[in-house]
## 1
Amino acid sequence: MSGPVLDLSDVRKSYGKSRALDSISLAMNEGEFVGLLGPNGAGKSTLFQIVAGLFAPDGGTVRLFGLDHASNGPRILARLGVVFQVRSVDLDISVHANLRFHGRLFGLSGDDLARRIAELCAQFNLDDLLTRPVRTLSGGQQRRVEIARALINHPDLLIMDEPSAGLDASSRRDLVAHVRALARTERVAVLWATHLVDEVGDADRIVILDQGKIRADDTPAALLAATGAADLTDVYERILHRRLADEDRV
């Protein structure tokens, strides 16, 4: 497609007197891997819920694939993959039943569905777990099921909110590598939210969200050059510290 896969302009969202998102503007193109960094309470989860169409913004525009949720929700969801921070798989049915049900929601059936489930199970080491109820799996195994489910429809945009939660260090590295490869080889746009800087060190862009505002949006190399930081962790800490210092002067 031409134009951005995701295009947010002046997006605002408040809960009572608390402003979760304060005039957010962000655009992503196909194949981009964008790391979204921010502390707890920065607004990351609210942003994801708006992009997924679960919440409507108070103001601004949200377009995915050139479309808006209000009039094109089903068309958007058919091309979107989502991994939320909170578990959303059905714990009382098997891994296979979860994947089959989700695949059928996207119109997959028969051999096509069986082939897609087999591909994802091989990628995420789920073959030996297919018949087990999700409730009986470890937290890391459940997370792998969630990610496989989010990919079953071959999404053009994959949004992932703390996707490595519950995974050990080796599994985290494997997941980052796999999703990064999807962006490079299949041109999937990926928005990966995390508070772990090392997960997005190879991102095409880093966006730093803090107190509902975007404090930085640039390539890792440009952020390093602009801040004079030694590494991305230092960049992140300097930008957050600068915000605190500005508040102290007010």
Note: The first helix runs from residue 44 to 51.
## 2
Amino acid sequence: MNPEQSYINAFDLAARDYDDEFSNTWTGKAQRERVHYFLAKDLAKGILLNILELNCGTGVDAIYLSGEGHNITAIDASPEMIRICKSKADRYDTNKIKFIEADIKTFVSAEQQFDYIYSNFGGLNCLNQNELRKLSASAASWLKPGGRISMVIMGRHCFTEMLYFLFKGKYKMIGRRNTNEATNVNVHGELCETWYYSPTDIQNIFATEFTLVRYKPVGLFLPPSYLNNFYKAKPLLKKAALKMEKTIGTFSWFANWSDHYFIELQKKSL
């Protein structure tokens, strides 16, 4: 089985439990609210946009964005993810979303150009640097002049994860993300190659076609999803984490110390 098919099979299996294991959990909801908070600065201007969402997962963000009035083209390589997306869209009775089963490495945009491109929660961490450079060139061709791309990426360090491994005595795991090599991540029984990138890494990879607008932490104090059960029965800890995320977690400097970070780039003028 080739690596691409392994990815698809893994995320087909993950699709069935993704909302229960992440989207509908405390940490999943809290981190997504932070992403939407940062998105709102661009999207709440009374102008309806044509948005391309890459690696749309189970469609949570596509439905949110369509609810804000935007037109969404959402793609994912997993047939099962797309099936779940379409069933959700039917329940919400929205006609503003077009879901397409497609791999972002080979996706070819239709004639329409987009105002905005968006990818949430580490979908782009499945791409190596060369693949990200190709995506940068493709994204620039998909965007209208002045268009922007926002990505939520898993960085090279995670403050809460490092504290957890220190507490558990798993010292070799503390720096597991800080590598230029691929890390094999178990996704429902399939090992999927994953790369971790700092904000500077992403800025440099996209530098030919894009300029940096901003980047912000997502999950500086809000933990990774696998720690949700650790926090579940600790209401005071959750309350403190949320409060610190909304105050200290607004500073860009901390972006590479959070579980994810939000980074926004603008297409360069010709």
Note: The mean pLDDT is 92.
